[in-house]
Design goal:
alpha+beta, eight-stranded mixed β-sheet
Length: 246
């Protein structure tokens, strides 16, 4: 009698193949981005910030190339800005976990430093990564010293991350914010929206939400039907939670 193929099965196989190709291409884009020597090279005008009494230079380095003193400063600043907020929600604070996160081999750092006296002013810890099957730039931290908060430096640094992300074909800039951090409103003010992967309030009482800005030059990627909890351990580490003291 022979064998006839099921049109629906054939369609599903084709969809699976297309998804595998898309994910492979996304992973390749992430790998290429992670091999960059200087992601800021195409944007020389963004290497300087001179506004509101701040005269700063900015640069990007892989975390593995950062001086130990700078790494310690980054940890201390994060702890000063965020420990209380972590401890007042379900996350809790752990020196060891935060140090491990900041020192991860895939970490990149955008650093702002005073031109006048060499003082470190702020930093962003970010990564080129896969998130929910999509190639993204994930902003883990944006931390500023108190003296330079609310002076547009944070907004300028986020612009740099977006330029870097979209230049390197990342589909989104993604970050996680704590709901108990009033500084988190900053992101929505610069057009970050609740991401489709963010847990809904009616699912449970979550202390965080995931925000993103889409690369409009690229068509939205099709995502798998994974639930918003499938990356919870990953989400827990993304604590860009209001590090934005501008």
């Amino acid at each position: 009698m022979g064998r006839k193929s099921n049109p629906k099965s054939k369609e599903k196989r084709l969809q699976r193949k297309e998804e595998q190709i898309r994910i492979s291409q996304a992973m390749q884009a992430v790998a290429v981005a992670n091999k960059l020597e200087d992601p800021m090279e195409p944007f020389p005008v963004f290497r300087k910030f001179n506004k509101n009494g701040i005269n700063a230079e900015l640069y990007v380095k892989k975390g593995s190339y950062l001086e130990e003193g700078l790494k310690q400063w980054a940890f201390n600043l994060t702890k000063k800005n965020m420990q209380q907020k972590y401890e007042s929600c379900s996350w809790g604070w752990s020196d060891a976990k935060k140090l491990e996160e900041l020192n991860d081999e895939s970490a990149w750092y955008l650093v702002a430093k005073s031109i006048d006296n060499g003082t470190l002013l702020g930093f962003s810890h970010f990564r080129f990564d896969m998130d929910e099957g999509i190639e993204v730039l994930y902003c883990y931290e944006l931390q500023l010293e108190t003296s330079v908060q609310r002076k547009s430096l944070g907004k300028f640094m986020m612009q740099i991350l977006e330029l870097i992300a979209f230049k390197n074909n990342m589909r989104k800039v993604v970050l996680t914010v704590l709901k108990n951090n009033p500084h988190s409103k900053f992101f929505k003010a610069i057009n970050y929206e609740v991401d489709e992967s963010s847990p809904m309030d009616d699912e449970d009482d979550y202390s965080y939400e995931i925000l993103s800005k889409i690369n409009k030059k690229l068509l939205p990627a099709k995502t798998s039907n994974s639930t918003s909890l499938s990356k919870t351990p990953h989400v827990h580490s993304h604590c860009c939670s209001g590090h934005h003291h501008h």
